[in-house]
Automatic annotation (TrEMBL):
UniProt cross-references to PROSITE patterns, sorted A to Z: GNAT (PS51186)
Keyword Transferase: yes
Record keywords, A-Z: Transferase
GO molecular function: acyltransferase activity, transferring groups other than amino-acyl groups
Protein origin, superkingdom: Bacteria
Pfam families assigned to the protein according to its UniProt record, in alphabetical order: Acetyltransf_1
Domain N-acetyltransferase per the UniProt entry, residue ranges: 3-155
Metal-binding among keywords: no
Entries under InterPro entries matching the protein: Acyl_CoA_acyltransferase, GNAT_dom
Name by which UniProt lists this protein: Acetyltransferase (GNAT) family protein
Length: 681
């Protein structure tokens, strides 16, 4: 008996889907998912289609399509695929393909032209299927800060245009069963970058080759609108195919108006995004996209964009998109933000926090309810794509609520006071999320003590330049023995092992590989990369990829980008020196440490104190400027010696810790040095 595929109907279905998610360990950690909670999630994410597969009265699979995923809003005419869950008993059959085929036809009928999906590259079951049905990775395989790679498909738009004009362009009519992914030529041999085309001045496009009876059709569709730009039939240009219209190339949002507020700067761009910045902090301090009214989706990482009217006077800015008018009034030490719905519907204001090393304090009715160093996943909670499911734990009545974010090292403090809304939510890295009927607002107060932690110019140590060739499990390595101990390096992969007094300080499985988070090819304990901008709101602090690795320089050669090891006066201290130049999409020098044996973490918190954290399967991540890790009878200390805006991101995963030590690169060769010191107990 094959499963029946149908659309979700009614509250009872929502409850059954919630139970199905729980049984299959899908959804938020630490939250009991219910039908009512799932209804809020669907509404907040803008779910437009949700299918369930049912067999003998039991739900065995689901797939959904929504306007928002990962706090990103899809472009007009496109949706994010997600909530793709299949019961273990049905994962080896044809059900997955049937779900995509069925949903494809429904989406095309509703005018959807493009699809996107955020997928964990370590998901060995789902990832190949997404590629087979037409999804491609435009920006390569770099996982974002949450560990997901975004894939894009323009297949719905391409097949719609092709089918509607088939007689004129191909000489025959194409039946409906040839309008989906099953007609892609050699679909099972496609890779994640198959058919990606760079169009001069028009961004990216994807080429699909369709194998139809007597026809080989090659069609290229633009990513922005899924419009066909080139079409060939049996190797020749299709007769009658019209040339594509001009496309508008994407460009960074232009600043419309700006104003100084003490040491802070407040700007407004053409997309209606309000940004607060400070010279002592790398990146924006607060990013507040234009609010949305009922029916809109509030995605701070990639908000929707609509035409705006801006009226900017000295003391007041008015921004109107036809649905919501936002008024920004300047105060002596901040701004007052008010958003009003034109249709008297619900309004959502969703400013995003740019401070990374930060203390977060929540006060209710004048009493401090909680204040601690921000550890995303613990304080505040982090429920990506299920934010609305924990409203009872992460939301409060807005009246009487105050939120303060502060960074003691840079001296920056940002407060949200006089909240005017029905509900205030603290979740993820929201500054504070406000929702209410007709209008919402808040007063944003800014202050700065003038402190700065921008540059460190400490000693660099002496390069360890004496190495000999060796072998480890049939792989070539370099080895040396110094006062710090025995060091083994795989030049193209990283530090394999550091042993001191006969005991491993850090070690790895090299040349064997292991998984940690979205990475599946981790073979060493330490390596260096040139990485994208950590302040990028969309990507965040990306996970490393193999193609971003910098080569090991055993002699400390400074002629090209690379990394080397150095020694200090203390025999228990090792230095990691990185030299690189800022390039497009490579703005950070990052030293990565994969620590599978760490059980406790101590960090320097945002107030200069010490915070101790346990390593647990429940994921969390936090930023700091100095950290220590307890492993096998000792502490491993990581501190910055030399660098520009040095910061450490620590991720706790089910497979151990992934530590990323960041330093900004400049347009000339930039030297970064981190100290790694071992204290045995």
């Amino acid at each position: 008996m094959s499963a029946e595929i149908r659309e979700l109907t009614g509250e009872d279905d929502l409850g059954r889907v919630a139970d199905f998610f729980i049984r299959n360990h899908y959804g938020p950690t630490g939250v009991v998912l219910s039908g009512h909670a799932l209804e809020r999630v669907f509404r907040e994410r803008g779910v437009r289609l949700f299918l369930v597969a049912e067999e003998r009265g039991e739900i065995v699979a689901t797939i959904g399509y929504a306007t928002m995923s990962g706090r990103r809003v899809a472009p007009p005419g496109q949706l994010f695929a997600g909530m793709f869950v299949i019961a273990p008993s049905h994962r080896t059959g044809m059900l997955a393909g049937r779900l995509f085929s069925d949903s494809f036809e429904r989406l095309v009928a509703r005018g959807i032209r493009g699809l996107r999906v955020e997928v964990d590259p370590a998901n060995s079951r789902a990832f190949p299927l997404y590629v087979r049905v037409g999804f491609r990775a435009l920006e390569g395989m770099t996982p974002d800060e949450d560990g997901y790679v975004e894939l894009v498909s323009v297949l719905p738009g391409v097949t719609t245009d092709l089918s509607n004009n088939a007689v004129a362009w191909t000489g025959r009519s194409l039946s409906g069963d040839r309008r989906n992914w099953r007609s892609i030529r050699r679909s099972r041999t496609q890779s994640v970058d198959s058919g990606i085309v760079r169009l001069p001045g028009c961004g990216d496009a994807i080429r699909y080759d369709f194998e139809l009876p007597g026809l080989l059709v090659s069609a290229v569709g633009r990513v922005d609108d899924a419009a066909l730009v080139t079409l060939s039939v049996n190797g020749s240009a299709a007769p009658g195919f019209p040339p594509p219209g001009d496309c508008e190339q994407a460009h960074p949002a232009r600043i419309v108006v700006s104003r100084a507020l003490g040491l802070f700067t407040v700007t407004l761009d053409e997309r209606g995004t309000l940004v607060v910045s400070h010279p002592g902090h790398l990146g924006s301090v607060v990013v507040d996209p234009h609010p949305v009214a009922s029916g809109g989706t509030a995605g701070p990482r990639r908000p929707s964009s609509r035409p705006l009217h801006v009226d900017a006077a000295d003391e007041m800015w008015r921004i109107d998109d036809g649905d919501v008018e936002r008024v920004v009034e300047f105060l002596p030490a901040g701004v007052r933000v008010t958003a009003m719905s034109r249709s008297a519907s619900e309004v959502v204001c969703f400013p995003w926090m740019g401070l990374r090393v930060a203390r977060l304090a929540l006060s209710l009715e004048g009493v401090e309810a909680r204040a601690a160093h921000a550890v995303r996943g613990r304080w505040p909670v982090d429920l990506v794509d299920f934010e609305a499911s924990a409203d009872g734990e992460s939301s409060w009545p807005a009246a009487g609520t105050e939120v303060v974010w502060s960074d003691g090292a840079s001296g920056v403090t940002i407060a949200a006071t006089r909240l005017r809304a029905e509900k205030a939510r603290l979740e993820g890295w929201h500054f504070v999320r406000l929702s209410g009927e007709t209008s919402v607002g808040y007063d944003l107060s800014v202050s700065s003590s003038g402190c700065s932690s921008r540059v460190r110019n400490g000693r660099g140590g002496r390069v360890i330049d004496t190495w000999w060739r060796s072998r480890r499990a049939l792989a070539d390595v370099l080895q040396t023995t110094t006062d710090a101990g025995t060091l083994i390096v795989a030049p193209e992969a990283g530090l394999v092992e550091w042993r001191r007094d006969g005991r491993p300080v850090v070690c790895s499985s090299f040349p064997s590989r292991r998984a940690i988070g979205p990475l599946t090819t981790v073979s060493t304990a330490l390596w260096a990369c040139a990485e994208p901008d950590r302040t990028d709101l969309d990507l965040g602090a990306a996970w490393p990829t193999d193609d971003a690795r910098l080569p090991f320089q055993p002699s400390g050669d400074t002629q090209g980008a690379g990394w080397s090891l150095t020694s200090f006066d203390s025999p228990s201290e090792l230095g990691v020196r990185v030299i690189a130049i800022a390039e497009e999409r490579r703005l950070e020098a990052v030293v990565f440490l994969a620590l599978a044996r760490a059980t406790r973490v101590r960090i320097a918190d945002s107030d200069g104190g010490v915070l101790e954290l346990d390593v647990s399967p429940d994921p969390w991540r936090t930023w700091t400027r100095a950290a220590s890790f307890f492993m096998d009878g000792g502490w491993l200390h990581l501190t910055s010696v030399r660098g520009i805006h040095p910061e450490i991101l620590i991720r706790s995963t089910a497979q151990g810790l992934m530590v990323a030590a960041y330093s900004r690169l400049a347009s000339e060769p930039t030297t970064t040095v981190w100290s790694v010191r071992w204290d045995a107990l």
